[in-house]
Specification:
single chain, about 200 residues, alpha+beta, 5-stranded antiparallel sheet, 4 helices, about 20% strand, rod-shaped
């Protein structure tokens, strides 16, 4: 007996297996934390049935908040989405929840604590469904892609400028060709006029 209870080899095995599973879980959570730190992604974990959302400390810091400042409710997320991006984000979410898309992935502007909007890549996936396929839990990440969006916008401006310059260059070439043709015609007219005077 151990502690007044009959000793059982099976009980010891169960405890050992449980401790190993707990250790494996801690190690797995630590690896996930390292991976998220390395990528600067903010993690969210949404209990769809209750509306509760866990926002990781990095998620809140990416938006300029301190951990705990953002209410842990799904309703606290949608008001920070830029109004121009909200409909698209909701559509992407619904398409995934209803099984039309395997993952939810969209880029949207989110309002930070300072009031500034920054661009974020928001990805997520339903990880638990009930027996009828209804979504119960969804997890995902956000990644700040503001600098990438600025670089893309600058590249677009440069391409547009180059395109405008090419159009102006083509117009200049066309105008030069027309002027040359006009000069040739004018020269012929001048020669004909001179010859007519000489007669």
């Amino acid at each position: 007996e151990i502690g007044g209870q009959p000793y059982s080899l099976n009980s010891m095995r169960d405890i050992t297996a449980r401790r190993r599973a707990e250790q494996a879980l801690r190690e797995s959570e630590q690896r996930l934390a390292y991976a998220l730190d390395a990528t600067d992604d903010g993690l969210w974990d949404w209990n769809i049935a209750t509306g509760e959302v866990h926002f990781s400390p990095r998620w809140t810091r990416l938006l300029g908040f301190q951990p705990g400042e953002v209410p842990a409710r799904v309703e606290s997320f949608f008001p920070i989405v830029h109004p121009d991006d909200l409909e698209h984000l909701r559509q992407e979410l619904n398409d995934h929840l209803e099984g039309r898309k395997p993952v939810k992935q969209t880029t949207a502007r989110l309002r930070t604590k300072s009031g500034e909007y920054r661009w974020f890549l928001d990805r997520g996936k339903v990880v638990v469904r009930d027996s009828e396929g209804r979504p119960l839990r969804m997890v995902g990440t956000i990644t700040d892609v503001t600098e990438r969006k600025k670089a893309e916008a600058e590249q677009l401006r440069i391409r547009e400028r180059l395109h405008q310059n090419q159009k102006l260059e083509a117009l200049g070439t066309l105008a030069g060709g027309i002027a040359h043709d006009f000069n040739n015609i004018l020269t012929a007219i001048t020669i004909c006029t001179t010859l007519a005077k000489d007669e």
